[in-house]
Amino acid sequence: MEIKLNTPLTEDKVTALKAGDRILLSGTIYTGRDAAHKRLIELLEKKEELPLNIKNEIIYYVGPSPAKPGTPIGSAGPTTSYRMDPYAPKLLDLGLKGMIGKGARNKEVIKSIKKNRAIYFGAIGGAAALIGKSITKSEIIAYEDLGAEAIRKIEVKDMPLIVIIDSEGNNLYEEGQKDYLKMNNR
Length: 186
Hints:
Layout: E1 2-6, H1 11-16, E2 22-31, H2 34-45, E3 58-60, H3 88-93, E4 98-101, H4 107-116, E5 119-122, H5 128-133, E6 135-142, E7 151-165, H6 172-184
Parallel strand pairs: 1-2, 2-3, 3-4, 4-5
Antiparallel strand pairs: 2-7, 5-7, 6-7
């Protein structure tokens, strides 16, 4: 069963989700990769304002390809998430509720997900064209000089995701391995 989920993310929405849940996400989300994250943290260190309010928002780790005529965005597959691990805890502490990417997260990020009752979604790597089709609108809101890594505000409709790490720290990557090993040790 797939769960239809709309942004913004509230604590009630986040805590109802469990590792392994399949999601169809609709609403406004933001994009950003490591270069943009580095700039966001530099602003915070200088006590300056961020170019977006991240409270109850989701950041999708993506550097989309250029849009073809008549489309809001090109292919939009997920970036490997560990590249954002040095920056994620600080953003989660400011109210970021969700992150979308691919791959494992470090212990500090998982601890911060639990502390801040946030969530980490996985998007399917290799499905960039499919994911791009779920994006209905895209506009650059910060760091245009970064090209594909600029921060974008995007609208999504039924973006296919899976909950990898839920707000209690349950991790699908770890649970999946354990379940697999149990099945093969019978």
